Amino acid sequence: MSYQSILDQIHEEIAPTLPQGRIADYIPQLACVDERKFGMAICDVDGGYASVGDADERFSIQSISKVFTLTQAMRTADAQLWRRVGREPSGTAFNSLVQLEFENGIPRNPFINAGALVVTDIVLSHLGDAKAALREFARRLSGASDIDYDLRVADSEARLGYRNAALAYFLKSFGNLENHPDQVLDAYFHHCALSMSCAELARSFMYLARHGINSDGAVISSSQAKAINSLMLTSGTYDAVGAFAYSVGLPAKSGVGGGIVAVMPGQFSLCVWSPGLDGRGNSMAGSLALERFAALSGQSIF
Ligand code: GLN
């Protein structure tokens, strides 16, 4: 079965069930999206491409941006990073505060919000303008020079981002932020508000399918690419990561905008988008689509 016919079949199965789940409304601007949207795109290492539905429509990538900022931090400060952030699954919600106090301000992993705030702090210290740096990086990886932040989303999150502010100030109290928490939060909210389509995300994540290399050279080393894929498998979908590995069996990263990117090292990068979320903040139809993709294609790292 070709990737195109697999995506067509998944679309046919899922379309009548939409909308599924609940759109994230704790960031009010995210709730303005049509909850019936559904798109998928896949790129493979031989240059193949297939897509379906709303694959070319841009959406708020939210926590998917954490893979890009982690990649940037690993490129510039790999050793320092792992003294300040752990590599274990958290078993708690992505925006949880409880673990942080018990564990002395060292977040469990770079994909929960606390971990991403530390990663953002590292990027700020090393690259200066973290907002420009991430936008440039996403443009280069995707080949789309007009990728940009949705400033309404960034502003909407900043105005009500009390929980993230609490995390940032708490991290600062433990000495695990170098920059002012407000500066870190501003960069973090913008990073989450980057707008990209499934097609652009699938293309951008190809360096993780190609052992660190993309079409214009090395992004990171092959061992760093392996490390990021491992972290996505163990922490990329938060406290649903066990069920996700069980049913899909691919490293993946989700965001509360409803996007999920999954990678099969050596084979392909796949992105799905549908805005309705389950209780853990992962796209409900998107998770189902990935589960169906793994079943129909027989592709999994296991
Ligand atoms: N911007 C969101 C937040 O910080 C990102 C969360 C997510 O996508 N899981 O709450």
Automatic annotation (TrEMBL):
Question: Could you tell me what reaction this enzyme catalyses?
Answer: L-glutamine + H2O = L-glutamate + NH4(+)
Q: What class of enzyme is it?
A: hydrolase
Please give the name of this protein.
Glutaminase
Q: Which domain of life is it from?
A: Bacteria
Q: Which example biological process does GO assign this protein?
A: L-glutamine catabolic process
EC id: 3.5.1.2
Name the SUPFAM superfamilies on file: beta-lactamase/transpeptidase-like (SSF56601)
Q: Which UniProt keywords apply?
A: Acetylation, Hydrolase
User: Where along this sequence does the record place binding of substrate?
Assistant: S63, N113, E157, N164, Y188, Y238, V256
